[in-house]
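Hi Y.,

Following your request, here is the sequence exactly as I used it, all 77 residues.
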Amino acid sequence: MADNVDFFQRMAEEHARTSERLAGKTKVSPTRAVAQITMTKTEKERYRRIADAHSIRLSQMVRLALDYYIKQMGWDE
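Below is the corresponding structure, written out as tokens. Let me know if you'd prefer a different format.
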């Protein structure tokens, strides 16, 4: 379990550094793409609260969760 926490912390720190580099940019980078997911309002509020508590954006948390799940399932390329 500690490994999972360490992995999440490293990924959160990496995403935080990326956010800091991108701060102040008004446009989304041409290398970025938009993906849409659906959820209930209650789910979104919960996820946003958790992301805010860790000083990351909801989109960053979703990417972290996807990366973590892919690694746990052994689906890495």
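The helical segments are 2-22, 41-53, 58-73.

Thanks again,
Q.
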